[in-house]
Specification:
It is a single chain. It contains ten helices and twelve strands. The chain is α+β, with helices and mostly antiparallel strands. A twelve-stranded mixed β-sheet has the order 1-2-3-4-5-12-6-11-10-9-8-7, with helices on both faces. Helix 4 links the parallel strand 4 and strand 5. The chain is globular.
């Protein structure tokens, strides 16, 4: 039987997720990635431009081998990184539109690199990151109070344009991403109580990591980045969830902040963007 892509749905993702509870926290990246997408599909079953795949073999299912294509982003996981299954799964995808391969665990980077090399794909960027991790029981201790004159609360979709504009990685198509993450995931904003202006925030990315952590220029150097990080970590811990964040090797300020809060580095993950091979494509807003 020739290997083929097999599209999978919500119940398959739930079965795959159970496999990743073993040897905790070795597979926490795959576990929380699946957890978030399970949540997306549960809340919005008709969500657009989200497809999940495995291979048409029992072994692939037994090892939870998966790829999730979320618009232009790609997420991947497998219990086994030595038998070539994930590489074969990646190889069967259509790479002509280009992918932003997101938070790929270190043990799967070789499989991704081999596919990129065999298909002679050009790269827009290749950014390694450290995975900072904290157990839920420790994150429960991070509860904070807003400083006088400010209030902490969840972000609203109305905040998305500001969050997107201030995000250093914003691009055409990213506003929808920010809106969706605010709508479907845990988030925290710090607001000026008098003006109700949003001054600092943090959202949760699809892979389960803290992301888009930002403080407005007018309110920097007051500890607000650490404050919203503590608050969102505490909120995740109340749900029984461990906390993860990815930090670029050169970002010493963020690395120092997470280390000071008690996070530890347990792995590395890669962000890699392949260029389209069929001409430029810009993802439209609202999709």
């Amino acid at each position: 039987m020739s290997l083929q892509l097999e599209e999978i749905g919500l119940e398959d993702l739930r079965e795959f997720q159970k496999l990743y509870k073993q040897s905790w926290p070795k597979y926490c990246q795959e576990f929380y990635c699946l957890d978030n997408f399970i949540g997306f599909l549960t809340k919005e079953p008709e969500i657009k431009n989200l497809r999940c795949f495995t291979l048409n073999t029992k072994q692939a299912r037994n090892e939870g081998c998966f790829v999730i294509v979320d618009r232009y982003q790609l997420f991947a996981g497998s219990l086994n990184n030595t038998n070539g299954l994930l590489q074969q799964l990646l190889d069967l995808l259509d790479w002509s539109g280009g992918y932003k391969c997101s938070s790929i665990p270190q043990r799967h980077i070789q499989a991704l690199d081999k596919v990129v090399e065999s298909k002679k794909l050009s790269l827009a960027f290749r950014d390694p990151t450290d995975l900072f991790y904290m157990k839920a029981e420790d994150a429960l201790k991070l509860k904070v109070k807003a400083p006088q004159g400010f209030v902490l609360r969840s972000l609203s979709v109305a905040d998305a344009p500001l969050v997107n504009h201030e995000w250093p990685n914003h691009h055409l198509g990213s506003l929808y991403f920010i809106e969706r993450q605010i709508r479907l995931c845990v988030s925290v904003g710090l607001y000026d109580e008098a003006s109700q202006d949003l001054v600092a925030w943090c959202i949760r990315l699809q892979g389960g990591y803290l992301g888009a952590l930002q403080v407005r220029e007018t309110h920097k150097r007051r500890g607000f980045g650490s404050l919203v990080t503590r608050e969102i970590s505490h909120r995740l811990a109340l749900r029984g969830e461990d906390v993860m964040a990815l930090v670029g090797f050169s970002n010493k300020a963020s690395s120092g902040m997470f280390s000071k809060l008690g996070f530890t580095v347990i792995d590395q993950c890669l962000w890699l963007r392949t260029e389209p091979t069929r001409g430029e494509f810009t993802w439209p807003e609202g999709q």
